Amino acid sequence: MLTFRPETEAQLVEAVQAAIAERRRLEILGLGSKRAIGRPVQADAVLDLSGLKGILAYDPAELVLTARAGTPLSEIEAAMGEARQHFAFEPFRPAALLGSADQTLGGLVAAGLAGPRRIQAGSVRDHVLGFSGVSGRGEAFKAGGKVVKNVTGFDLSKLMAGSWGTLAALSEITLKALPRPETEQTLAVSGLSEAEGGAFLAAAMGSAADVTGAAMAGGQALVRLEGIAPSVAYRAGLIRALTGGEVTVHDAAASAATWAAIRDGAAFADRPGVVWRVSCAPSAGPGLVAALRGEMPVEAVYDWQAGLVWLRLDAPHAELLRTHLARAGGGHATLIRADAPTRRATPCFQPQDPALAALTQRVRAAFDPLGLFNPGRMD
After folding, report:
1. Picking from 136-140, 150-154, 192-196, which range would have the lowest pLDDT averaged per residue?
2. Spatial distance between the Cα atoms of 229 and 252, rounded to a whole number of angstroms
3. CA 194 to CA 266: how far, in whole Å?
């Protein structure tokens, strides 16, 4: 397949304009780490953005980083690590489930998949300050800014997060960089049912402990605390007072490994089957899983105080899953891991109601009137 690999924004504009002139539909790729999420793209050529790489500006004192969209996340994290900073939303790493070693900054933003700290730090779109890119009209444009308080009008930066490359080919992105916690600790409570675990996590989130991770995995309810050591120790006492169950403490290294596994759905990495990532109301998570277990074998890991549920099923069961999700109060079910034939036959992203679907189509038409970018991926 024909591949365009621009190394400058001017070359990116030329590549898109050439595709417009020749009516070539484009699959937008960085390192391909999340290529297996969504329906297979029906494209005539590949627009490889991995050549658009490099950190353009990073001042730790200003807590802002600007890099080209094709910059590997590992390179960015190495630079931030020297300043003891990070992306607080904990970006999902696809390596465990999809086998990809690294991802680009543009792919991270386009997917918009945040990790456990989302309950405290917010989503990916909350940390995007600005970007530059090329629309499906072949026009370079930019939105937002390079400082935290420099966004006026409609914030297009938030629109790009979760667009999965269907609106624009990103060339440059600016995000917030925040200080890493001095230390962390996880309290693991055993002996609770899923319903009891959900109630415990709700109590922990409602306490003054400033929880940055609340999950259920491996038969345990897990609470993460981060900050300076004396504060973490004090807040751990507040969490202990909320439960009569057996409490095990994970030190900083063990805690980091635990939450990395939860972030990436790693419990299902070596297990066959289909993997879904389901978001719903935290109070609805355990009930949704219980309803599904009444009809099929299900394995589940809960994050975001049970508002995010990783599910492993023997087959997609998409209609049944979404029926139970609607009964539980609604939400979104995204197919994360399945083979290509299954993805072609399954709505991988949550179907939208008619009004929202019509609005989505109008937005796409405004950015990409010919439907050049990642055609079919989100259908």
Report:
1. 150-154
2. 10
3. 20
Please give the pLDDT value at position 244. 74
Q: pLDDT tens across 349-370, in order? A: 999 999 999 999 999 999 999 9
Task: Work out the angle between the directed axes of helices 318-327 and 285-293 (0-180°, nearest 10).
Answer: 130
Mean pLDDT score across all residues of the chain: 95
Give the span between the Cα atoms of 53 and 30, in whole angstroms: 10
pLDDT band at residue 138 under the 50/70/90 scheme:
very high
Q: Structural domains in the chain?
A: 48-179 (3.30.465.10), 183-263 (3.30.70.100), 266-354 (3.30.70)
Instruction: Express each pLDDT in 50-86 by its tens digit.
Output: 999 999 999 999 999 999 999 999 999 999 999 999 9
If you search the block for the tokens 């979404």, which residue do you land on? 322
